[in-house]
Write a structure and sequence with these properties.
Blueprint lengths: L3 H18 L2 H7 L31 E3 L8 H16 L2 E5 L5 H16 L2 H5 L11 E3 L14 E8 L13 H25 L6 H4 L6 E8 L9 E6 L5 E6 L5 E5 L2 E4 L7 E5 L1 H6 L9 E4 L6 E8 L9 E2 L17 E2 H11 L13
Parallel strand pairs: 1-2
Antiparallel strand pairs: 2-10, 3-4, 4-5, 5-12, 6-11, 7-10, 7-12, 8-9, 8-11, 13-14
């Protein structure tokens, strides 16, 4: 029987060999593989998919933002709906969000073009240094997670200090910056509505610097020859205050709700919004950062663009804890205070191991 030590060494060498190609999962598909490498084999328990009963109780809320900037009854309705979705689901979709279909399509197309361009051009952006202005890689937690995910990623911080034009990819860089500006406007509106739903002043969450930083990640999930043996993205919760996701028509995103994996179906023109760990922390668990995942698929590629309101990869010594105005004898703090820097260090060290990044902060 092969020793555990030898198995670990073999896995380590496989991971290094994959990383050294600098062509990601797309490179494997381009090479014509018919079975997935062992490093992508997910533990069987993580692949289970209990399907929810068919009912509206297991349908992700879709919220129409039209009228959200008006001081009318429409705004109060929106505040109630968004607060309810953030509290019960942690996930919802928004329509009439103010970003045109053309912009959404150009952003998706740009990410696809980046990942499908000449591998030698892409390699120039390949890096595992989170401090790089622009990073293209496959699996940020490649060397720490139980199994690699079937996806590649291009990303950068677009706020507060976006990369210089010369540091951006030619095929999509300009679009990444333009799209981010639109997402930032939407994010500010969402944080206003969430603040009001908590009974706080309109700008409360913005004044806590929740909208200061934006990380854009453009994901590429190639078609997988054995989608039942791996995942596009393992179960995890987000290390953000809020995440705005643009997904294409392929599908595969699922949310863990009442112990069931619930599909988040693609809705043309809609954006998916979800609560991150940091918003759950400061709302003392009122808004929930729920676990979610992406299934691998034989069809593809699947393209998604995730924008995270978080300074997760940047030094940030600001202390965050449950908002004092939300606490009482009946609602004592559930989490200790932390800095984003401390939280991010823990989150990165554990990778997508199936546990919440908030567990170690619980009181």
């Amino acid at each position: 029987m092969e020793s555990t030590h030898n198995v670990a060494l073999d896995r380590s060498s496989q991971l290094k060999a994959f990383d050294d190609t600098k062509t990601g999962v797309k490179g494997l598909v381009d090479a014509g593989i018919s079975s997935i490498p062992d490093i992508f084999l997910a533990p069987p328990v993580t692949l289970t998919s209990p399907k929810p009963p068919s009912s509206s109780q297991f349908t992700i809320p879709t919220i129409d933002l039209k009228g959200g900037t008006d001081s009318t009854t429409t705004r109060s309705d929106l505040v109630e709906k968004i607060g309810d979705a953030a509290e019960k689901w942690g996930f919802f979709q928004v329509v009439n969000h103010g970003i045109s279909l053309d912009v959404l399509e150009m952003m998706r197309d740009g990410i696809r073009e980046f990942h499908e361009q000449d591998p030698e051009v892409k390699k120039g952006f390949y890096s595992r240094d989170p401090k790089s202005k622009m990073v293209y890689s496959s699996n940020f937690d490649l060397f720490s997670s139980p199994a690699a995910n079937w996806r590649d990623t291009l990303g950068c911080y677009t706020a507060p200090d976006p990369p210089k034009p010369e540091d951006l990819p030619a095929v999509c860089g300009e679009m990444m910056i333009e799209y981010s500006k639109e997402v930032m406007k939407l994010g500010k509106l969402l944080f206003e509505l969430l603040s009001e739903s908590l009974g706080l002043s309109t700008n409360y969450l913005k004044d806590m610097d929740c909208t200061n930083s934006l990380l854009l990640l453009g994901h590429y999930y190639p078609p997988c020859p054995q989608p039942d043996l791996t995942l596009g993205l393992s179960k995890h919760s987000d290390n953000s205050f809020l995440t705005v996701l643009l997904q294409d028509h392929i599908g595969g995103l699922q949310v863990l709700h009442d112990q069931y994996w619930v599909d988040v179906p693609p809705v043309p023109g809609a954006l998916v919004i979800n609560v991150g760990d940091l918003l759950q922390l400061i709302t003392n668990g009122k808004f929930i950062s729920v676990e979610h995942r992406v299934l691998a698929n034989e069809t593809g590629p699947r393209i998604s663009v995730a924008c995270f309101f978080s300074s997760y990869l940047m030094a940030n010594d600001r202390v965050y804890g449950p908002v004092k105005e939300l606490l009482s004898e009946q609602n004592p703090p559930k989490y200790r205070d932390t800095t984003i820097t401390e939280y991010a260090k823990f989150y990165r060290s554990k990778g997508f191991d199936g546990t919440s990044g908030l567990l170690y902060l619980k009181i």
